[in-house]
Amino acid sequence: MSRVTSDGELLPAKEICELKLTLTTSQFALLERAREVLAAAGSVPTDAEIFMKAVGDLLTKRDPLRKAERAAARQRNLDDDLGGRNNNVEKTVENNNAVVASPHDGPTIAAARQRENTAGRYIPAAVRHQVWLRDQGQCRHMHPDGSRCQEKMMIELDHIDLHCRGGEHSASNLQLKCRLHNHFAAAAAFGNEWYRHKLESVTYVRDS
Hints:
By secondary structure, this protein is mainly α. It folds into 2 domains: 25-62, no CATH class; 64-201, no CATH class. The protein has 7 helices and 4 strands; from the N terminus they run αααββααββαα. The strands form 2 sheets. Strands 1-2 form a two-stranded antiparallel ribbon. Strands 3-4 form a two-stranded antiparallel ribbon. Strand 1 and strand 2 form a beta hairpin. Helix 6 (179-190) runs antiparallel to helix 7 (192-201).
């Protein structure tokens, strides 16, 4: 009945994927505890509902693309709230990295942010978010036939102009690459001996 609309139209059935899960007794106990926690909402969840809730929570917390989307939404809301009325918000660009100084930040916090971005060691979160949104979590390597790599697993931030050779932590100098294509690019820059050593230290696991 859930597939029938109020107008009597039959909705297409969803495709079903069957997942077989083998758990240890301790893992099963955690699953049952999760069932007890979710049952507080008033109904006992199925295994599938527990699984989807766990996946949803994991993606909300750890998906870089979702983090970038939330950061962009917060910035839009901040811009809307300011509405052009607060001219005390200053935006300083240092080494092509945008550093936003909030009027609520004291000099100590502002100075700490400035030092963090000019230290050159870490890519600022705002820049990472911008790159993930632009590339949509997909490798940007282009194949000889002009098609783009479709990989969305083992994604890494890649400097177009190498950071160790002066490349900037800027969105224009960063792109997403899958680990394989990122290593290929590094091998081209540093030589095959480096690449051989890297392969010896990395194990690729990918289901067919």
